[in-house]
Design brief:
- This protein is of the alpha/beta class.
- It has a single domain, classed as Rossmann fold (3-Layer(aba) Sandwich).
- The protein has six helices and four strands; from the N terminus they run E-H-E-H-E-H-E-H-H-H.
- Helix 1 packs across helix 4.
- The relative contact order is 0.18.
Length: 169
């Protein structure tokens, strides 16, 4: 792993909401130690407007946000990832590309706010809940002493972050 920073890829199907929010959160709270990216197995091609509005409301620059394929990160000239976090269950069941560098992986499934139904307020709440869960998990991750943990211990912590719904709430 790099002495300067760790590359992290957030994966989801559409790369339109959860993975985009994960990328934004980690690039903010992990600045200087982590560099985040996001991608999808079947990218929608657009970022969900509720995700964009939430990020903008929270003063995130959304200029980075675009829905893209995970193939971009499996290419020979792609940045080498240290970690790949899948934020939806269905992508975890798909055959992933071979990632250059063999990064550590974990499933951090978050309910898809884009599948929520209801009023405009209920939709905003679904996106806020997903953001909160991602933010809590990412906060736990950035506070791990990544450079000092052995591979098995670090993998255990990554898996626990994804399993413990109390930490996501």
């Amino acid at each position: 792993m790099s002495d300067n920073f760790y590359n992290v890829l957030f994966l989801c199907n559409a790369n339109s909401a959860r993975s985009i929010m994960g990328e934004a959160i980690l690039n903010r709270i992990g600045a200087g130690r982590f560099r985040a990216f996001s991608a999808g197995s079947q990218p929608k091609g657009t970022v969900n407007p509720y995700a964009l509005q939430l990020l903008e409301t929270l003063s995130f620059d959304t200029g980075f946000a675009r829905s893209k394929s995970w193939d971009e990160f499996a290419a020979p000239d792609a940045p080498e990832m240290n970690f790949v976090f899948t934020v939806c269950d269905s992508t975890a069941n798909e055959a992933c590309p071979i990632w250059p560098g063999h990064p550590m992986t974990a499933l951090w499934a978050i309910p898809d706010p884009a599948k929520a139904h209801g009023t405009d307020a209920e939709m905003h709440l679904a996106f806020a809940d997903a953001f909160r869960m991602l933010s809590n998990r990412i906060s736990l991750f950035v506070n791990l002493p990544v450079g000092t943990l052995d591979h098995m211990t670090l993998q255990h912590h990554l898996d626990e972050i994804g399993r413990d719904t109390a930490k996501a709430s």
